[in-house]
Amino acid sequence: MKRLTCFVALLFSLIVSAGSAAQDASEPLLVEKQSFSFENFETLGGEVIPEVTIGWESYGELNEAKDNVILITHFFSGNSHAAGKYNGDDALPGYWDSIIGPGKAIDTNKYFVISSDTLVNAFPHDPNVITTGPASINPETGKPYGLDFPVVTIRDFVNVQHRLLTSLGIEQLHAVIGASMGSLQALEWSIAYPDMVERMVSVIGAGAMDAWTIMTLEHWARPIKNDPNFNNGDYYDAEAPLTGITSTLAMITQQAMHPVSMNMRAPKPEVLPEPALESVLNSTPVLDFLFANAAQRAPLADGNHLLYLVRANQLFIAGHEGDLASGLAKVKAKTLFLPAKRDLLLQPYLAQQAVSLLEQQGKTPGYDEIDGVWGHLDGLFSIQSKASRIEAFLETE
Amino acid sequence: MKRLTCFVALLFSLIVSAGSAAQDASEPLLVEKQSFSFENFETLGGEVIPEVTIGWESYGELNEAKDNVILITHFFSGNSHAAGKYNGDDALPGYWDSIIGPGKAIDTNKYFVISSDTLVNAFPHDPNVITTGPASINPETGKPYGLDFPVVTIRDFVNVQHRLLTSLGIEQLHAVIGASMGSLQALEWSIAYPDMVERMVSVIGAGAMDAWTIMTLEHWARPIKNDPNFNNGDYYDAEAPLTGITSTLAMITQQAMHPVSMNMRAPKPEVLPEPALESVLNSTPVLDFLFANAAQRAPLADGNHLLYLVRANQLFIAGHEGDLASGLAKVKAKTLFLPAKRDLLLQPYLAQQAVSLLEQQGKTPGYDEIDGVWGHLDGLFSIQSKASRIEAFLETE
């Protein structure tokens, strides 16, 4: 439990000395990872998962009325660790520690903030992650599910979180807030449980996947599917498809960034480096910067989990029925959309599409762009620039 | 010789009915593919290729003084076929037919326009392509070179073209013009042969590869390197790495486009399509649109050639010595840079970097952005919007 989520660790390591996303490390919130299990979960696709276990953590205190709850939903490569530290000597706090904590935008003196790991989390071998997916043991066979695990959707992630909240007696959400894939969950929450969600914040998000993004996600899946070790997802007794996973993680890392931030951090390209001239198979320091780092993280990920996450995202359209307008018609929550201006992965037009449809329905979604040089990752590293906007939104009646 | 270059054919098929890049199909210029060979070519890396053969074609007439020559250098997935048709019944003309021809911006009534296939062309199995690379027969062994072929650079492409022009008695270029990888060659021409090049036009181009783009290119290489059939480049007696090549071509196609143009052309994503819910391995119409098309073109490409092209581009820094400023210091040509406003592959900052350095050297590069919804491909499909700018530039003294 002392390890950091590696994806976050990598990205934070990139910004060491950048100073552009300084974390407030004073008085670290100490948090504890917990576990929640239940049986016979029926998916949106009509399949039943006999046992589901997910990890979760919380910051602040649940009040007696249980009406001060803010749910944080995590991004593709993330997990429940949104704020605080598990141990005082952890190198880094959770990914949104700059806005979650005592006196911060999401004030843990006022709110009970809770966050859980999703189903099919990308990094099931990260000791901080507790998830259920293809790498989990199928109680019917005593072996990992592999591709026998049912395809799951963002709605399923939401329904699992709903079970967790119900188990805690929580029937109302002051707000649900998420970045990237977390934004899909946040929006889906406000449609699946419209009477329960009072406020919804979508950070670097979308209302539905467009063809462009569905294709982008497929590029993340193909290196794993085409890895010689993949074996139709049945590799748990043999070598894992680590080469494919490495390609996938490297693509995700790059696409979540922007040329400005990448070029600031990466080694300067050399002029006619000897090894690169000797063979097309030889690497260079620039390539090592991206791929060697991804290779280090690959063993904590699972190939099948990544494929299931890709599929869950590809299938996303808020409400999962008819068209996007039909889904958004069910939203009762106040909404705020915060795309990142230089996002190359989920460009602002995706958030704008949802905002525009909500406005056509007579609603008043808030909209503001996060400025920064990180691209998609400005949703994490530059979120502090929208702290007061988020704080004010949470205080609206 | 009747086939169209498949990459171009695909992209043009995408815009059928779009009408945004209408080709002027009246009075098609009829052109003939020719071949040029020479021996003992020494690469920038100091290796010798015993025999080089490349294809070329021309439009217009070489005047007696041989001073009306415009060289067109091709993009990554392209070849010499920049304008006209090989046969009157070809479905489509060359890729820049909208600006090359009698009375057009690059007026073949005035200029002798010539274009050649590069070394290590991506599609050596396209019957319209004549190239030398790893798939060519090594005269020393009687078998394909595979990875014994020396790594080549953009400078080598230029030097081969120089040999072709010299063989035709051409010692002066009125202009050299290229898009994307063609822009790298055009700029390199003006540094390698500064007294020979009078004008240089860089379309959707760069002065040097930055770390970001070097990484992007590596994503194109890895599916081939990691294909089980790759066998260290030695697959010519066995199955080709077509699965990897398909991934690569699909990535290139997407990255050369923009969400707007892609979403206009691709099928509308379905809500909870049954096959996609049944297995993460199942495809959808959106994915087929991209990947099935790429799979169709894959047999005309060669895996090793793609790796060599990737490497040539990764190694590009204009002048190939010291830093970019040192290379650009040698430029004597008048220059014009035309990046595409919505380019996601070679974003305008790359052209701006070269322009800024040239200005610091007291030169007066022209700069203008191509507007459109195609992204990188606006350099092909929207080039007509800059026809008068190019025409005027070619008329400057």
TrEMBL record, chains A, B:
Annotated Pfam families: Abhydrolase_1
Catalytic residues (UniProt): 180, 343, 376
One CC-aspect GO term: cytoplasm
Domain AB hydrolase-1: 148-248
InterPro entries associated with the record: AB_hydrolase_1 (IPR000073), AB_hydrolase_fold (IPR029058), HAT_MetX-like (IPR008220)
Keywords: Acyltransferase, Amino-acid biosynthesis, Cytoplasm, Signal, Transferase
NCBIfam families found in the cross-reference section: PRK06765.1 (NF005262)
Its EC number(s): 2.3.1.-
Major site of localization recorded for this protein: cytoplasm
Top-level division of the source organism's lineage: Bacteria
Any one Gene Ontology molecular-function term assigned to this protein's record: homoserine O-acetyltransferase activity
One GO BP annotation of this record: homoserine metabolic process
Protein name: Probable acyltransferase
Record's subunit section: Homodimer.
Secretion signal span: 1-18
Subcellular location: Cytoplasm
Translocase as UniProt keyword: no
Family: Belongs to the AB hydrolase superfamily. MetX family.
